[in-house]
Automatic annotation (TrEMBL), chains A, B:
This is Histidinol dehydrogenase. One of its GO terms (cellular component) is cytosol. Substrate binds at S237, Q259, H262, H328, D361, E415, H420. It comes from Pontixanthobacter aquaemixtae. GO terms for molecular function: histidinol dehydrogenase activity; NAD binding; zinc ion binding. Zn(2+) binds at Q259, H262, D361, H420. Catalyzes the sequential NAD-dependent oxidations of L-histidinol to L-histidinaldehyde and then to L-histidine. Binds 1 zinc ion per subunit. It is an enzyme of class 1 (oxidoreductase).
Amino acid sequence: MRSLSINDADFAQKFRRIVEDRRESGSDVAGQVASILRDVRSRGDDVLVELTQRFDQHTLSSDSDWSITPGECKAAFDGLDTGLRDALQLAADRIRTYHEAQLPEDRDYTDDAGVRLGARWQAVDAAGLYVPGGRAAYPSSLLMNAIPAKVAGVKRLAVVTPTPKGAVNPLVLAAAHIAGIDEIWRVGGAHAVGALAYGTGRIKRVDVITGPGNAFVAEAKRQLFGVVGIDMVAGPSEILVIADGNNDPDWIAADLLSQAEHDPSAQSILITDDEAFSRQVEDRIDVQSSMLATKSVAQKSWQDHGVIIVVDELAQSIALANELAAEHVELAVEDPSPLFDGIRHAGSIFIGRHAPEAVGDYVAGPNHVLPTGRRARFSSGLSVLDFMKRSSFIELDEAALRAIGPAAISLAEAEGLPAHAKSIESRLK
Amino acid sequence: MRSLSINDADFAQKFRRIVEDRRESGSDVAGQVASILRDVRSRGDDVLVELTQRFDQHTLSSDSDWSITPGECKAAFDGLDTGLRDALQLAADRIRTYHEAQLPEDRDYTDDAGVRLGARWQAVDAAGLYVPGGRAAYPSSLLMNAIPAKVAGVKRLAVVTPTPKGAVNPLVLAAAHIAGIDEIWRVGGAHAVGALAYGTGRIKRVDVITGPGNAFVAEAKRQLFGVVGIDMVAGPSEILVIADGNNDPDWIAADLLSQAEHDPSAQSILITDDEAFSRQVEDRIDVQSSMLATKSVAQKSWQDHGVIIVVDELAQSIALANELAAEHVELAVEDPSPLFDGIRHAGSIFIGRHAPEAVGDYVAGPNHVLPTGRRARFSSGLSVLDFMKRSSFIELDEAALRAIGPAAISLAEAEGLPAHAKSIESRLK
């Protein structure tokens, strides 16, 4: 953990280092991923069989080795205890409601020149969702990826997920049932992403791929950007908590640890105007983390990437927050409004003392797939727009072309494109 | 040029080959670009000086070697002949009006559970626009990239453009004046894109990079996706004209050539239900193209990539158009409505006999930066959204947390994330 004061002589330099430190995967992964993708593209299912055997010790032979049916998902859902089923359902309902209001409106109008103009939004035909296996097999993540796609109107939703030694996570299947997933393929890794992008004998190709994964999965998506649409290059999770001294240090410690327990590369940052409070939080982190089942991950993340910054006044935190452009920002202060107004770059903002980031992970409604690694400067959380695209349209009659066509002819000629000019001229003769 | 009939025995196979043929840059470029980007990142301006000398024979030494001032842009604008100035201004005004209506609305509401939820859109701080030099130095392209950024509210707009042997294009400078560009840097190529993404001594880094360029520029943008936001991986331009036999073949020939004259890799496709008409169009293409100043490019594009498909009924063209997912689609038919309704994948659609694609390139208003290479299946033309990002926000008081928090605790425990659960539990004690 690094401890900084805004009054340190070398504060600017140290803070710059924190901002620049992206904690991304190295380029050694890039070469391996490129080779896997080439292989999947040329040899299809055979490569999936080989790599699934090697990485997951799972043999893809019969249909049930390859995929999990909607019936199995329903059975998993029915088998959950009531409390968990209700919790999943509440989460799904709230996520759906929030995302339904994101649906964009079409435009269609005729302007003063007589030109009909507009834009029409439509869903992509098919989307693929990556769902990690093992520790990071989160049903909440499946809901957060699948529901916006369904709300957008995507007809075919295919999940790929590794099932190491054949093990499946019933909670993930239950979430797939709630979300209405059409296909679940028992493959993971960069090769599964390649299969979704290029298609194989078994798996038909999709148009958009979303969902979290390890460094190989993230790199595969990055390399396939343009072949398919992808949601985002995602890095390790981050939280920035801005807190005054009147918080319960236990609450703030838990918030910082909730991010740290995700991943040893995750980053938790506290900015406060109260140095004594910052030491209390540090103590509570030590105590709490020692009791967590996720202790080793949380402690490693906090040790390696945790940061506490003490400022003179909370107003100074605005500029720092905008430099950090963090995935999650909590405003645990008496009057959050001035901070909220000043923050330009953040994935999601949690306002007030009773808004721990964890509610946003599950049940608040907004998407928990958010830009990491300072990408909130230029990108947004996952939304229905990631599963839709817009076609513009233009209709003219002869009068409308006569009104605006001559200007286009002038510009086409000036740009040295005579066929452009002729295509308009010939219609105005 | 390839000529197909939907009744050919091997039609499906031939059509598939046309769909799959992406005409993209090879991966040999990828390695060179990666090395240039690494170099720019570590050595900054020195690399720009070296490569600008090598590729553009332009020496970057004094300030005026490096950049073009807003004053010079204004002088270029004032120096244009009135007709051209008015045409540029009409184009800018119409583009601005269309894009202003794209500005997204913020959301801020409190739901039944007492949870305040919302989304706030804000512009990125800075955007960089690539403007090609030489043949493809199009002022229209500068307007189409810069105006949406300005409408979005971007404070700093930096253009990079190569000026081979020091030559600048007055029309591009005039467009920069109209669009309100803040900085113009006289560098081009992958190194210029790298400078925008990473920043150098002279050029401050930006958050989003848009604009067309050659294969090196496109590959640089692709590799930098995630370091900055980019608009799109752009390939050669395409048009699909769906035309019945009642069109003037001269008009349709000019439309096909207007795409072909852009680039030897551009693709023009005609689908018609009238074989005799298709032969007339072919003849008119031969005659017209031989008279064009852009003859060599247009003829090569048409020879290598042109396609004519004859169908039995125009309704069959809908499925073909959706497979092709072309950048531009013209519907030059008696009743365009059924075709328009059926087309799901297209960058921009031009409706009716008096809507040649060239009006969309300049003055119609919608953006002419559109998805190519079948990417209209999953992506959209450039818009103000490419220069903005959305932060979600969540505010709860104790009662609201009591309403939805317990479900989040259940899910966090089921996912094995105890600090998540504790961050909520400790607030509900």
